[in-house]
Amino acid sequence: MAFNEEQFKEIKAEFTIGGERLHEIAASFRQDLQLGLRDVELSSMRMLKSYVGLPSGKETGDYLALDFGGTNIRVFRIRLDGEGKYEILKRVGRPLIVPGEYNYICKDATAEQMFDFIAELIDEAIDGERGKKFYLGHTFSFPSTQDNIYNARLIIWTKEFATQGVEGEVANDLLVEALKRRGADNVEPVAVLNDTVAVLLSAAYKTPNIFIGSIYATGHNTCYLEPSIHDPNCFGEGGMILNLECGNFMKLVPNRFDKEYDEGSEKPGEQRFEKMVSGRYMGELLGMAIAELLGEKGKKYDLTSIDMSMMILDDSPNLQRASDIIMAKVGRELDLDDVKKVRELASAIIIRSARLVAASFVAIVWQRAGKGAIQKQHVAVDGSVYEKMPLAKENITKALSELLGEDAAQVDTILDNGGSGLGAAIAAAMVKCNA
Ligand code: GLC
Question: Among residues 178, 192, 314, 402, which is most buried (max CB within 10 A)?
Fold first, then answer.
């Protein structure tokens, strides 16, 4: 059965955002930001305080860094030498879920099990050493409220995490208890931060003129340095970094696939922006579109954003690789023309995602500039979608120039690879160097 041409065009149009609409989206994102700065209740984004500003670059010392934000937990021992220099002394990592073996992110898992698993990994990073004090920076990449640099309390799980007993709790307290149970209480968590904040700290430690940090991966979120917020509990320079939790930005119109996906998701009504743009969801959106074209609406295929990448990167004349992926995940042999259409839809979904992300960056750049000129700057981004997904980065750049016009020369995006770990060490150093 070949796809219906009209239906295909209509679905592709659903995933296409023209120039005018993109401008409107950037403007509405900025407006939401301004509302939130006035009163956070007015914004659809959480705009959470981080209690850090920018590092001075002079932070030094040895720290532990825990990167907890996706299915892979990583722990690093990092030596900061100041002047933007650092060395990774040790790196360990383990997934929170191994299908068929264990799963610490599902509804049946408990906070204790999850944090014991993390404490074990931390212990591995310090080689079981007990005689020495280790200060730890904790990148905890879920929406959390805090009123100091330590006490981030999880508001709600995102990215389809569902472990019991963590929502409403202070993540570092759960970690401290687990470390105690393990006898590793010589490890002391001293700072907690969102991964976007970690990326911003990490990038700003190394390079000047960076005020915006973003993650474009399994999840999506952005933070920026807000110069107007001053707080005695805040470490660092230039104001306070706000973690926007913009994955929860709600003021844009979802298409019917977005709506349907949301309704069946772990947290309906939440993270609507993230469900349109991030790596966790793009494959499933494509799967829904294919199901419709195959007359199997409602059927779920296990398509991932990695499948999308591989299909797009297949440049063989008969698209064998793409075809094989479709066969494996959708269970159908499609003719070449339909495989091409699937790739076109995959591209449309990625391009939409990149354009939306770019619009949010521009909104923040506008907001920071106010009525003044746009400062020369880099937006630091980390994450697999930004780094590896074909079409993502180039379409961000394209959309930046569409939205910023002449000012586009002032703004570019740069990859800050591994910022979640380094940023956590820097945050710990910002606390300890000031202590
Ligand atoms: C989700 C989380 C957010 C995190 C982002 C990227 O949106 O809510 O805190 O920064 O994923 O990992």
Answer: 192
Phi, psi of 221 (to 5 degrees): -165, 160
Sheet holding 220-226, edge to edge: 48-49, 240-243, 220-226, 210-216, 377-382, 411-415
Q: Is the CB of 239 under 6 A from ligand 1?
A: no
Q: How many CB atoms are located within 10 Å of the residue 43 CB?
A: 23
| pTM metric for this prediction | 0.96
d(CA 97, CA 102): 6
The answer to whether 279 and 385 are in contact (CB under 8 A) is yes
Q: How far is the CA of 213 from the centre of ligand 1 (A)?
A: 12
Name the β-bridge partners of 237. Answer: 54
- Give per-residue pLDDT as tens, 62-85: 999 999 998 899 999 999 999 899
Q: Which residue owns the Cα nearest ligand 1 atom 3?
A: 142
Give strand pairing partners of 80: 61, 86
Residue of 144, 265, 274 to test ligand 1 pocket, by largest number of atoms within 8 Å of CB:
274
Whether ligand 1 lies within 6 angstroms of the CB of 245 is answered as: yes
